[in-house]
Amino acid sequence: MRKITKGAEPEQLIRWKRANTTLRYRDLPGEERVSVRTACITEQFSLCAYCCQTIAGDNSHNEHVEAQDKAPNRTLEFTNIVASCQRQNQCGHHRGTRPLDLTPLMEECESELKFYLSGRVTGKTERANSALEILNLGHTEESNRGLIGARKQLVDQLIFTGGMQPDDLEDEELLGILLDDMLTPKNGQLAAFSPILVNVIRQLLP
């Protein structure tokens, strides 16, 4: 996960809520839902809120951080909505409405998960381990082998496309340059899985 900083509500959502003060998200028309999703994708730099794979409007959905059935009064709060990928066995679709104690709206989401160059991930806290299982982010090899493999492949590409070699992972200066590159959006987007590589680099740097 990568910390998401929520921005301003889309104007379309604001106008609709003003005209429909007693309604909930389930009543929100398609055009307004798309405006919410577009705003979320933009502020997430085109990354899924949970797995950090690249998403766009046609392969993502609006995800309520506090589930609609658990927080019915927050269903139209933009600060409670992120964009999640559409993969059926992970992220928002795997979670359902189970509560998350560690979310991408919290600073700790970047420090309580530990990623490895192998594509594996472990939690440093009980709530982190719970989030990994609920979202099926590869807490074991067997649970989501495909995601673990995709993470490893794309993280390798991010490292070696930049001209680094395996031995360079001990070079603090080069690691710092790569870290800055991974933290900098290009054309409003971050590279797929770049937050995972950022997590690994921060472990390697003193």
Structure description:
The chain is mainly α and 206 residues long. The chain has one domain (11-204). Helices cover 38% and strands 8% of the residues. It has 7 helices and 4 strands; from the N terminus they run H-H-E-E-H-E-E-H-H-H-H. The protein has helices at 11-19, 30-43, 91-95, 126-135, 145-161, 172-183, 194-204; strands at 60-64, 81-85, 113-115, 121-123. A hairpin with a 5-residue loop joins strand 3 and strand 4. The radius of gyration is 18 Å and the shape is globular. The model has no long low-confidence stretch (mean pLDDT 93).
Question: Briefly, what is this?
Answer:
The chain has 206 residues and is mainly alpha-helical. It is 38% helix and 8% strand.
What is the total tally of β strands?
4
Write down the domain tally.
1
Number of helices, counting only DSSP H or I runs of 4 residues or more: 7
Spans of at least 5 consecutive residues whose pLDDT stays below 50 are: none
Protein name: TIGR02646 family protein
Organism: Pseudomonas jessenii
InterPro entries: HNH78-like
How do the helices and strands line up, and which of them pair or pack?
Elements: H1 11-19, H2 30-43, E1 60-64, E2 81-85, H3 91-95, E3 113-115, E4 121-123, H4 126-135, H5 145-161, H6 172-183, H7 194-204
Antiparallel strand pairs: 1-2, 3-4
